[in-house]
Amino acid sequence: MSRVLWTVWVLGAVTNLSKEEAPDQASSLSCDPTGICDGRSKSLSSIPAGLTAAVRSLDLSNNKIASISDTDLRGCVNLKALNLASNRITTIEEESFVSLQSLEHLDLSYNLLSNLSSFWFRPLSSLKFLNLLGNLYKSLGETPLFSQLTNLRILKVGNIYHFTELQEKDFAGLTFLEELEIDASNLQRYEPKSLKSIQNISHLALRMKQPVLLLEIFVDLSSSLKHLELRDTHLNTFRFSEASISETNTLIKKWTFRNVKVTDGSFSEIVKLLNYVSGVSEVEFEDCTLDGLGDFDIPGSDKIKSIGGIEILTVRRLYIPYFYSFYDMSSIYSLTVEVKRITVESSKVFLVPCSLSQHLKSLEYLDLSDNLMLEEYLRNSACEHAWPLLQTLILRQNRLKSLEKTGETLLTLKNLTNLDISKNNYVSMPETCQWPEKLKYLNLSNTRIHSVTPCIPWTLEILDISNNNLNSFSLILPQLKELYISENKLKTLPDASFLPMLRVMRISRNIISTLSKEHLESFHTLEALDAGSDHFLCSCEFLSFTQEQRALVQILIDWPENYRCDSPFSVRGRRVRDARLPASECHRAALVSAMGSVLLLLLLLTGVLCHRGHGLWYLKMMWAWLQAKRKPRKAPPGDLCYDAFVSYSERDAYWVENVMVQELEHFDPPFRLCLHKRDFIPGKWIIDNIIDSIEKSHKTIFVLSENFVKSEWCKYELDFSHFRLFDENNDAAILILLEPIEKKAIPQRFCKLRKIMNTKTYLEWPTEETQQEGFWLNLRTAIKS
């Protein structure tokens, strides 16, 4: 009896556990209102129950699902995409997908399917994408799997270890594929015409370790394939035989070798194949290894004038283990005569031999990005009669250091119109340079230059000098149509009179604070302007101009999202298009004119009296004195929140925020500074903000300049600090003279401030970098004292 009770209890526990598990699995599936459901990486052991017709996309990848039953997806009649990749699926019942007639995307890759059934795919008449990679099957089944998939465009099959054979019936019924990927790494048997049934394939990616069956596959694909990509193949043993190829006119236009290992001998065999068949116009090598010395034995190479009409050659990240012993490759020079475009990237190229350059008689485009080219070796490469038709030369991210030498070296290239020498370390630019006379496009971005000079050729139509350290641009370029000068330190737009033909200008991410109507209208031919991500001072004039000029909006790129106010504080962060300032700031003249003549006269009289007698100043000081009387004479140490409050003009904000703040707040230990733009409390009266900030700071730093003494808000800060800091004999003021100013510019009523400047030492900002470290040391010492 006890055993029966024990059994009943166990069964009950299992039943309860299964009931609790289902809601947990369902709850781990998140769906948005459009029917896109995400259940990735949730440790699900089965497809969640309760799926309805509302589900349009279902991603259950990276789980522990082991099987799919006939009822799991029965309700998903509107499902468009189903991703079951990287699970543990071993079985799929025959009618599991019977209701998925709208399914277009199905991914069953990297599961444990050892057998494939055509019953799964028969209902999937709308399927366009099918991925079966990485399972355990040895073949694609006994009957054609894809004969009903008339809309299929992308198909991926095979696996790295178990897939060993391709049969003639495997792709029956398929007439057109945009992309076919076959992982045949361990292919041992290829039945003739297995791939010939597909009448049109845009791109085939074929992964196979050994090239034993490569020619047989090539024969079947020659009349139907446009782009053949060979992956992860060891071509060491590849041998070409003319007898195996009966058709020399092929549809294949492009060959790609990806992660392929080649020897001197097998490279010669590839050249023979490419020369024997016609039609191939582009060859690409990516992440390949040439395990040889360049000793290419190509019989009859003197008769081969070009490799099967190849016009485009691309080499990326080529690895040559024995490059230090490499031959001069003169045996293949004659094969390059017809090549028009060559790209050799990230392959440690430091020299193109002059003799090879002279043989490239048809070359129009050469890209040598991310290599080791120096001016000395470039001179040998661009020798006399080298690259006679070259129009575009890309030397991005090499080891070039001298603009003058670079220009002189390329004078032999009479037809060069486009030159990209970006991401080199030029730093400086000489006053004069020589360039090819037809040069129209020059890219000098990311070269660390600090200024531009007449070294830049005046014949340019497109100039890119973005992401450098430029403070100004004042070159006369009468033919320039496009200027890219983003990510520099410009404060204003270039002078339009220097660029009369300019159509496109990208000047975003500088420190431009405003755009004036007069300045923009001076660019008569401007069609597109990108000035986004700058720090705009949203004054009334600026907002009125940008919001009312419809013609301006039509030429601004990324308007309005990338155009935001940086100041004043009340509209900081808002889009320029949406920013609004109070009427009192933008229409003061109208408000004043509406007042009566008597009141105006009274105000003028009062203003004159107050100005001469400093009445306003005394009233403000009286108010500050009354407010300060309610507070402790000296703030307790625990109430001090900042090391220093910084008083500065908005026009000096760049030096304060990008120089002083960076130096002090990133020092170890860091100083905590109080800046009005960053630390004032929004909505609080500005005078209260000033008082509270000064009282909660150990020191007060005044950044004195001509702009400071003209600033109204700086006067308020100086007024209160004059009372608080000097009248109480408090030695908490630190004066920094940012630029020489006359003492008469300081108001006469601040006699104690003038006296202190005459009797005490103040810190003067040095223009020479060698003296700046001492300045910072003295400033930190003063703050700590």
UniProtKB/TrEMBL annotation:
Disulfide bond entries: 31-37, 354-383, 433-455
Gene Ontology annotations of biological process type: inflammatory response; innate immune response; toll-like receptor signaling pathway
Role according to the record: Cooperates with LY96 to mediate the innate immune response to bacterial lipoproteins and other microbial cell wall components. Cooperates with TLR1 or TLR6 to mediate the innate immune response to bacterial lipoproteins or lipopeptides. Acts via MYD88 and TRAF6, leading to NF-kappa-B activation, cytokine secretion and the inflammatory response. May also promote apoptosis in response to lipoproteins.
Bilayer-crossing regions: 589-610
Family matches, as PROSITE patterns: LRR, TIR
Pfam families in the record: LRR_8, TIR
Residues covered by the TIR domain: 640-783
Molecular function via GO: transmembrane signaling receptor activity; triacyl lipopeptide binding
Signal peptide (from-to): 1-20
GO cellular component term of the entry, any: phagocytic vesicle membrane
Gene (UniProt): TLR2
Localization: Cytoplasmic vesicle, Phagosome membrane; Membrane raft
InterPro entries, sorted: Cys-rich_flank_reg_C, Leu-rich_rpt, Leu-rich_rpt_typical-subtyp, LRR_dom_sf, TIR_dom, Toll-like_receptor, Toll_tir_struct_dom_sf
Keywords: Cytoplasmic vesicle, Disulfide bond, Glycoprotein, Immunity, Inflammatory response, Innate immunity, Leucine-rich repeat, Membrane, NAD, Receptor, Repeat, Signal, Transmembrane, Transmembrane helix
Protein species of origin: Leptonychotes weddellii (Weddell seal)
Topological category with respect to the lipid bilayer: Single-pass type I membrane protein
Identification of the protein by name: Toll-like receptor 2
Classification of source organism: Eukaryota, Metazoa, Chordata, Craniata, Vertebrata
SUPFAM superfamilies: L domain-like, RNI-like, Toll/Interleukin receptor TIR domain
KW rRNA-binding (keyword) present: no
Family: Belongs to the Toll-like receptor family.
